[in-house]
Write a structure and sequence with these properties.
Layout lengths: L1 E9 L16 H13 L6 E2 L8 E11 L5 H14 L4 E9 L11 E9 L11 E2 L6 H12 L21 E9 L2 E8 L6 H13 L5 H10 L14 E7 L1
Parallel strand pairs: 3-9, 5-6
Antiparallel strand pairs: 1-3, 1-4, 2-3, 5-8, 5-9, 7-8
Helix pairs in contact: 1-2, 3-4, 3-5
């Protein structure tokens, strides 16, 4: 058996998330179905990041083991055929052979996410950004984003019943920007907890609207209690941008 990495992009609007779930559409199920149709063998995917329902990915990686597939040049051409099988909202970017012990999840050095917000009604971004028609202070938002880099324990931003050994993460980048009609939060870290980015955004929006202070924001982090954070922002504004190896 040989091991392969597959890079994909998808719009998560119609899906219950990446992972296969009974009686629900999933990214994994659609890609595995397309791989079976094309390569004529059952292929099970392992993901680098299990995105939740409605979350999008510009670049996400999976690995799988299979009997010898076509040589790389032919394999590159296979993406056209796979994309013809897949729904329009899922795209295979490339497939390539890797070392037998390579692991798309555990070998990742960091992951990058983006959350998009729009404040003026816009039908062209309504399915991939969060409509938040309230005054935001970008300076306060960035101050909160800077605070996150000072901490490592993000228990407060992990949803309940998350089975992890540690809540420690290293934030590499935490930045708010304004691009055209979007207010965008970009964050990169060595690992992310369940619901972490949405918890960051929802709680920072409270800072940006003046509902809580930076001091309050620090207290939420240091409380190590997820009931103090705000996870209410919807999934459609969240994108997995990249996984770095």
């Amino acid at each position: 058996m040989l091991r392969y990495f597959i890079e994909v992009s998808y719009r998560g609007t119609k899906y219950s998330g990446f992972q296969i779930q009974q009686n629900a559409n999933s990214i994994q199920a659609e890609i595995e179905k397309a791989l079976k149709i094309f390569f004529k063998e059952d292929i099970k995917l392992t993901c680098s990041s299990r995105t939740d329902a409605g979350v999008h990915a510009i670049s996400n990686y999976f690995h799988f083991d299979a009997l010898s597939l076509p040589v790389q040049q032919v394999l590159n051409e296979c993406t056209y055929n796979l994309n013809a099988i897949l729904p329009d909202d899922i795209v295979v970017k490339r497939i390539y052979e890797v070392e037998k012990n390579a692991h798309c999840r555990f070998d990742a050095l960091s992951r990058s996410y983006r959350y998009d917000i729009y404040q003026n009604k816009d039908p062209f971004v309504s399915d991939r950004a969060y409509y938040y028609p309230y005054n935001l202070d970008i300076t306060k938002l960035q101050s909160a984003a800077d605070v996150l880099i000072e901490y490592n324990d993000f228990t407060s931003f992990s949803k309940k019943n998350t089975q992890v050994k540690s809540f420690n993460c290293t934030i590499i980048k935490s930045q708010w920007t304004i691009q055209y009609n979007l207010t965008i939060y970009n964050v990169e870290a060595n690992r992310f907890l369940r619901g972490m980015v949405r918890g960051f955004v929802g709680t920072m929006l409270k800072v940006g609207t003046g509902k809580i202070s930076i001091h309050d924001f620090r207290n939420i982090i240091e409380s190590k209690n997820c009931t103090n954070a705000d996870f209410s922002v919807p999934s459609q504004g969240l994108f997995l941008l990249n996984v770095r190896y």
